[in-house]
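Quick one, tokens below:
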């Protein structure tokens, strides 16, 4: 309110005891003017009033500063877990692209380039085994970095295709490394025990390694599971190698008789 005949601005309000350290958003803070502390009312002249807007602005600045100084260790564990899953997806995606490029080179009979691409593809899948259980420290306790079921399925399918195609590339060498072909086939069977092509190639490799009993077992299993696929070419190949195994075993029996 204003006094008659004067330009001075006058405000009358209740005096607050500072000893109680009252700090409310509704308190008026006087930053300038003459203050008369006599009596129950306080009369002041020109002044600046700082209210809620100042406090809100200050809170925003402080929140921003806290966000800028937050360390990695303070990031919530669930958010970090999500970051790990995104990284898994990225690596599987790159592996798929490299694998597809390798298949294209294989179809063009560029076996050396295809092998290089397949091995490169496998590198991106290493360490992504969901059963590995990489521990992460977090405020919510230790968590295990686990791969989602769907992503795990895609990863295993990609690995199977890579090992199958690596075996094909090796079989085109002048002297095929049958020990390696067998190894790749067994790796596939550790993920999918009834994989017909892996069983067949494991049997073929064992035949060339003179492991006839093991070769026969792999080929019998391949023949048993091949009936579900109705693939005439695969069935003919299995039958051919079973005959080879039986013929070689028969010759061995005659030699020892």
């Amino acid at each position: 309110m204003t006094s008659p005949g004067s330009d001075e601005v006058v405000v009358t309000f209740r005096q607050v005891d500072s000893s109680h350290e009252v700090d409310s958003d509704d308190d008026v803070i006087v930053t300038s003017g003459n203050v008369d502390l006599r009596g129950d009312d306080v009369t002041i002249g020109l002044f600046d009033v700082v209210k809620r807007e100042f406090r809100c602005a200050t809170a925003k600045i402080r929140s921003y500063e806290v966000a800028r100084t937050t360390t990695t260790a303070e990031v919530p564990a669930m958010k970090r877990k999500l970051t790990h899953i995104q990284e898994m997806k990225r690596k599987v995606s790159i592996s798929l692209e490299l694998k597809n490029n390798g298949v294209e080179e294989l179809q063009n009979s560029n076996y050396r380039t295809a092998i290089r691409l397949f091995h490169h593809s496998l590198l991106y899948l290493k360490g992504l085994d969901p059963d590995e259980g990489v521990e992460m420290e977090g405020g919510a306790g230790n968590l295990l970095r686990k791969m989602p079921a769907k992503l795990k399925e895609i990863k295993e399918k990609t690995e199977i295709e890579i090992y199958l195609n690596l075996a094909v590339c090796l079989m085109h060498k002048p002297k095929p490394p049958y020990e390696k072909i067998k190894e790749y086939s067994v790796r596939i069977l550790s993920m999918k025990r009834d994989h017909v092509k892996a069983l067949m190639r494991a049997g073929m490799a064992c035949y060339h390694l003179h492991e006839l009993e093991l070769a026969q077992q792999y080929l019998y299993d391949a023949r048993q599971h091949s009936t579900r696929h109705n693939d005439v070419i695969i069935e003919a190949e299995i039958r051919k190698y079973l005959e080879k195994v039986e013929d070689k075993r028969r010759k061995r029996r005659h030699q020892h008789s």
